[in-house]
Amino acid sequence: MFNFTRQYSVKDGLITDELASHIVENLPARYASAETWKRIYSLQHDGASLQTMYLACEKEKARSGHPKGACILAVRDTDGDVFGVFIPDYLIPAPHYFGSEETFLWKYFPPKKYVHYPFVGNSNFVAYCTKSFLAFGGGNGRYSLWLDGSLEYAYSSRTPAFENNPLSYRGCPDQRIQIVDIELWVLE
Hints:
It is globular, with a radius of gyration of 15 Å. 18% of the residues lie in helices and 32% in strands. The protein contains 4 helices and 11 strands, in the order βααβααβββββββββ. By secondary structure, it is of the alpha+beta class. Its main location: mitochondrion. GO terms for molecular function: ATPase inhibitor activity. It comes from Schizosaccharomyces pombe (strain 972 / ATCC 24843).
C-alpha cells in the first residue's frame, strides 16, 4: 500500500489512500516519489470559487519558489463518483493552452474501479485556465473535462487529446454533471 503524508487531516477527503495508490502508479517518476501531498484548495472549506482555487495556486507557486507545480485536481459528482486530472503545472489563468504529455485524466468509481487516460497527443489542447472556466483536453469543439467558474457543474466528453470516455459514471457526453466537492492537491 502506498503511504503518503497529508498536509491537512482529511478524514472525508476525496483522495483516499487507495485512490492515491492508483494515481501514483501513473505519475511520472519524478513525481511518484513525492512524500507530501498538500491540499491547497477544497470547495467544502474554501468556497465554490474558481478564482479562489487560482489564488491558492498563485500563493503556492510564490511559497515554493518553483515555476511549475505538480497538481492533482479531484472532483466528486452527485452520483458519488470521483474523477480528475494530474498536471505538472500550477492552475493559473493563461491566454492559451498549456501543459505537457505527462498530464493524464482519471476516474474512480467505488468500489475500487480506477481508469486512467494518458495524453495521447492527437491535439495540443492539454489545459486551459480562464477567469470563467477551467478545461482539460480539447478538440472537436469539446473538452475532456470542463468546469464552470462557480464550480457548480462540469461537462466531460471524449476528445482527441486523451481519447477518454466521459469521466462521469453516467457516461453521457455533453450532459451537465453536478459537482458536490472539488479538491486541489500539490505534490512536494
